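## Example pair
The file below holds two records. Each record gives the amino-acid sequence first, followed by its structure token line.
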Amino acid sequence: MPKPLPESAVEGAERDGWLWLHLNLADQRCLRWLTQSLALPQGLAAEFTGSSLRQHLASHGDFLIGHLNDFRQEFDRDCTEHAWLHLLMAKNFLLTGRVKAVQSAERLRKDLTRGMVFSWPAQLLAHIITNYPDTLDGLHHSLLDELEIIEDHVLDERHRGERKRLMLARREMAQLHRHMRSQRRALQNAERIVANFPEGLTPVIARLAHLDQDFEVMEARARFFHDEIDAKLASETNRQLYILSALTAAFLPPTLVAGLFGMNFPGMPWSDTKWGFWLAIGMCLFSSAAVWLFLWNVSRR
């Protein structure tokens, strides 16, 4: 059964079973402690505690070391923010480290509290990495639900704010998919070149492959909805522009008539009659009606 150990037992040379340590690498003393207490080689400890620009899993002699993607753990909730999980495994211990709190370590702690037993470090490592596709699967279903809501609103012509919602969903899809592909590629490369590759990680690669296909399908649907919203907005804009153009064309002849009769020149027709104003109004209405009739005939063709 797993049990917590005091610091003296961790640093001691004699202990039963094997050891799992999860370290806060934000503490600068971790490197010195690993080389002194666990007698790790300086270069290996520095690589474990250092930062990485890409996900990878490689072997160094009898050690398996790597940096993989995980999700940041908040105090009150889970989130989709990217965080790094540092890994170092040997025959009798497994070291994990982080700078920001990660969800996989917190879930593993809860599993151990409930009495889950792991026979060897490789089994524990496989369980930690399995948490990543598990979380991805839940996020995939959440994003699918969001797409379904957006689709209903688009089909119901209620898409006033759906374009922004879709952009946020697409950005989250792209980020998750990018990190997932990177982890899948890292595990596949490790499976090919690492001699002591843990067998429990092979199903994780298969799950990531299925999730990769699911995310590709979901991103294609999101792009289709984006194009559909853009098409509907463009159609609505064209309709409004047509109405504005029709109004402009309808009021242009009356404006011309009013401008002609507004000129202060001698000999203006009907200027000395009582019904000259109404004749000018009639000409304005007649010209507007003629334009509307012309536009109506054009629209019927």
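Second record, same layout:
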Amino acid sequence: MTLSIVLVTFAGFWFPLIMAGLVFAVSLGVAAYSTYVERKFAAFLQDRLGPSRAGPWGILQPLADGVKMVMKEEIIPNVSNKFLFILGPAIAMLTALMTGAVIPWGPKINIGGEWFSLQVADVNIGVLYLLGVVSIGVYGIMIGGWASNNKYALLGALRASSQMISYEIAMGISVITLIMLSGTLQTSEIAAQQHGFWADGWFTWNFFKNPLTFLIFFICALAETNRTPFDLPECETELVGGYHTEYSSMKLGFYLFAEYVNMFISSAVMSLFFFGGYNFPFMDELSNHPNLVAVIGAASMLIKTLFFVMVFMWIRWTIPRFRYDQLMNLGWKILIPLSLANLVATGITMWATGKIG
């Protein structure tokens, strides 16, 4: 009886805290070593070595970069708004880390007869939470660019705000289409509905149910994370460094780090929404071993996520940057009408097949 009470208390209070710490640590660790992998990946494409001095094969380069960022002289311009200048990178980093809280990273695991969820917070409006936190993230860039009192930084902030607002519309419409398919806003339920890989004569993953929704969401995710070819807010060729021109030391590090954390979380969200999340083929054959299913499921989720991280990097070193008018035309004249047409077509198809009344 005492053990049962301890386990219930552990499941209700301590385990979510442990999960929050794990998600925080994994997000930071993946973000740190994404910089290393991207530099190695770019070096491979361009026939050069990449990082090779700090540790064997350069694997300590992220640690060296972190130490460099902390040790560099911190400069805050006299003409800047100092409070907002500090607040900008803090918001960018905070919102990037907050999004991982509602993502189910694996099936439930059984410890001592009690079931523990590999999710920090299973809220019934998890999809709205993700969209809301992502929307707040743009304020970190806008505030940092405006508070710098630098024309290049301000132009970068304006570009970022208009770009993110534009592509959030198409992303939101694609998410509405996904909600129509799933019938829920709960992220754990979206994952559960994609159980396994094949059922009733068709694939269970949402990608196979509506691949166009995934394509729209993926393009918008590139724009929301300011990744090439959508990196106009920090376009070095015309804006020096864009919204973070005046930043140095760890404040600059926060902005750069937030981009990689956002890339990791965006990859996890795409894996969850469209590729089954922690689900994998033949998982029902292992139903007698729930903890093994949980371990393999968590590994499956991580592998899918890292795959999309590599796709982000591949696109960066393959496709050239858009002009700004091309970027806005793609968002307003192509993606928004396409996402609306996809939403209507999905609704008509679901009505015709009797899935909605």
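Notes on the second record: The longest helix spans residues 2-45. The chain has one domain: 68-352.
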